[in-house]
Amino acid sequence: MKTSRLNKEIVIECAMDLVCESGINGLRLNKIADRLDVKSPSLYTHTGSVTELRQTVIGRAMEGFREQLVDSLLGRADLCAFVELGKTWAAYAKNQHAFYTVFYEKEYIDSYEKSISVFLRAAFERIFLKCNLTDQELIQVERVMTNYFRGHADGFADTNFKEAELISDLEILYNGILQNFSKVSQ
């Protein structure tokens, strides 16, 4: 594809397509240059180093993930919100597996904390409003859920994945959180 006006957005979109196809380690400037029918050195103006481009691409993917999570909560509360959040989380892990599996790598975990973890804690605060969770309890809930979804990431991408099993797990997790963190009235 010959591009008459190469810009950062075109390079990032091409890079995101490459990551979807061959993973983050398959992202190379020479591959982008071949696809855009330009010379590799001309990309440095728009991307900086490959490391910077990877950070940008993963940051963009995290923004998209967070937006999907936000959308899943709209108009929902309590268990319904928790289940929809979980279904959206699993769908992203399935449909954007190349990005999702990288979110938790050492190079990107700070970005994940700022972009996703902070949002999740706010979402869980709203979902479990009746429990009046402390900041430490919200961190625990976020960690439990993140570990659940990290541990099942490959399973979500599997063709044998059953949404009914996910919903059952989410209902169990939700009820467990309610039981563990419900404050006893005095």
Question: Can you put this structure into words, describing what you see?
Answer:
The chain is mostly helical. The protein has 10 helices and no strands. It has helices at 8-22, 29-36, 44-47, 50-73, 78-95, 97-100, 109-127, 135-151, 153-157, 163-181. Helix 1 (8-22) crosses helix 2 (29-36) and helix 5 (78-95) crosses helix 10. The longest helix has 24 residues, at 50-73. It is elongated. The protein starts with 7 loop residues before the first helix and ends in a 5-residue tail after the last helix. The mean pLDDT is 90.
Radius of gyration: 19 Å
Provide mean pLDDT, rounded. Answer: 90
Largest sheet report? none
- Which stretches of 5+ consecutive residues score pLDDT under 50? none
Order of helices and strands: HHHHHHHHHH
Share of helix among residues? over 70%
Categorize the overall geometry. Answer: elongated
How much β-strand is present in the residues? Answer: under 5%
Q: If helices are DSSP runs of H or I spanning 4 or more residues, what is the number of helices?
A: 10
Structural class: mainly alpha
Distance between the termini: 69 Å
Query: Based on DSSP secondary structure assignment, what is the total number of beta strands?
Result: 0
Give the helices and strands, then pairings.
Blueprint: H1 8-22, H2 29-36, H3 44-47, H4 50-73, H5 78-95, H6 97-100, H7 109-127, H8 135-151, H9 153-157, H10 163-181
Quick take:
The chain is an all-alpha fold. The chain has 10 helices and no strands. The model has no long low-confidence stretch (mean pLDDT 90).
